[in-house]
Amino acid sequence: MGRRLKKIAIFGSTGSIGASTLAVIQRHPDRYAVETLVAHARIDILWAQIQRFHPRQVGVADPVAAQLLRDRLHREIPDADQRPAVIEEADALTALASDSAVDIVVAAIVGTAGLASTWAAIQAGKRVLLANKESLVAAGALMMRTASASGATIIPIDSEHNAIFQCLPVGVPPSSAVEKLILTASGGPFRTLPASDFAHITPEDACRHPNWSMGRKISVDSATMMNKGLEVIEAAWLFGMPPERIEVVVHPESIVHSLVQFVDGSVLAQMGRPDMCTPIAHALAWPDRIESGVENLDLCAVSGLHFEAPDVVRFPCLRLAYEALQLGGVAPLTVSAANEIAVGAFLDGRLSFMQIPMLIEQTLEAVLAEGSAVYNPPDSIDTVLELDKQARAVAVAGINRMKVIGSQVRIPSKQQVVR
Ligand code: NAD
Ligand code: MG
Questions:
Q1: How confident is the model at residue 61 (pLDDT cuts 50, 70, 90)?
Q2: Helix axes of 331-347 and 226-239: crossing angle, nearest 10 degrees
Q3: What is the bridge-based pairing of β-strands 246-250 and 256-262?
Q4: Which atom of ligand 1 sits closest to the CA of residue 276?
Q5: 134 CB under 6 A from ligand 1?
Q6: What pLDDT shows up at residue 213?
Q7: Cβ(279) to ligand 1 under 6 A?
Q8: Rounded to 5 degrees, what are φ and ψ at 38?
Q9: How far is the CA of 61 from the centre of ligand 2 (A)?
């Protein structure tokens, strides 16, 4: 139909968001072509994606997996012209995000591992579909400043931020008309669990989300409500809002994805089934709309919409994230880095569920005790990555100290490995 195909690079293609993105793209071969896929190591999934989408290049961060994929490509695709290039070296992998052939970069790597490529895409002025909220938490000032200089368009695919993006009038500075942003939270699997039962929570319990199917790290983040805390920080940067004008409301049905309260008393909400294909389709096509494959919401079948205040006593991670946002400087970065270490240790059975917020708080206190420089926001991506590394080291030392103190932690048999 004469429309130029938009070329897409998906960072984190083998994950939950990556899979949903490909599911939407597959419905629109007249609009989108997959140029680049990047993942950590899951070669079986990557292989299937290569066969279906024929990317020109594939990035594999794990060198052993990269070699396995290269071997398989040579074995099964004899014609070299038909084989995608396999890239593994870290800088080359990051550079795939600024490739001039790519129009849209989907930033869907989990955690700090996604920072460098998100940054490269923003710097190169791409349309960036942002799932990797950790990028804005760690380096919000830098990312937003760079986006306005490069002309990059950041469209959130985190469902709450996508909802707010849909409710805000395009081109109007939010501060004048908007009173507050209201982020909804499902409350996670332990919304109604009494505090006395938190000591027995296992990784399997925490990964069993009532409404959304997601990767393990964000599932645990939802269970601790750190996910909502990170999202408050993400919203502050994306929409230029101070913490006191960002509210969290628990909404167990996950039908209202977030709301905007305007100064005249109007409240706009975006609703839909809890399926990431909706925000992904919205962000891919914006300002157009395309079909996402998600079934229509049947309002009469929705038994009710409930809202309640979050409980920051059982879920201290939410409080910690607000405090970090208020403190500014390296505090949000530190909270996010410590959280990633804590969640990795919890999933490995080296930390209890309740020790996750304890470790984050200790790490934040230790980093802030280092001096006044920590109140300045980091001004380069290298500084961000260096500060992240330092915060992780403090968190790892904190785990070892908890072990020595002998609180109910299982003794680790080997040094922790968190990627
Ligand atoms: P996931 O664990 O399912 O997938 C993570 C992806 O990142 C995988 O493809 C993995 O290969 C890749 N990855 C990990 N480390 C890497 C590295 N070092 N180099 C290259 N690739 C690497 O996670 P997910 O649930 O898809 O979440 C991804 C991001 O999206 C997270 O930041 C999460 O907070 C955000 N998000 C997810 C959802 C959701 O519904 N899943 C919703 C909103 C936001
Ligand atoms: Mg979300």
A1: very high
A2: 150
A3: unpaired
A4: 40
A5: yes
A6: 82
A7: no
A8: -130, 135
A9: 26
From the CA of 275, the nearest ligand is 1
pTM of the model: 0.95
Q: CB-hemisphere CA count at 13 Å for 149?
A: 11
Dist CA 337 CA 392 (whole Å): 6
- Alpha carbon distance 103, 241 (integer Å): 29
Residue 318 CA to residue 93 CA, distance in Å, equals 34
Model confidence pLDDT, tens digit, residues 282-299: 999 999 999 999 999 999
Per-residue pLDDT at 409: 46
Quick check: CB of 116 below 6 Å from ligand 1?
Answer: no
What distance in Å separates the CA atoms of residue 77 and residue 345, rounded to the nearest whole number? Answer: 40
- Ligand with smallest separation from the Cα of 221: 1
Return the pLDDT at 403.
74
Q: Give buried/exposed letters for 379-410 (b at 16+ CB in 10 A, else e).
A: eebebbbebbebbbebbbebbeebeeeeeebe
Phi, psi for residue 256 in degrees, rounded to 5: -85, 115
Q: What is the pLDDT of residues 307-318, one digit of tens each?
A: 999 999 999 999
Q: Is the CB of 88 under 6 A from ligand 1?
A: no
Which residues does residue 9 pair with via DSSP β-bridges, in sequence order?
Answer: 36, 105
- Nearest residue to 88 via CA among 62, 56, 117, 69: 62
Q: Are 281 and 292 in contact (CB under 8 A)?
A: yes
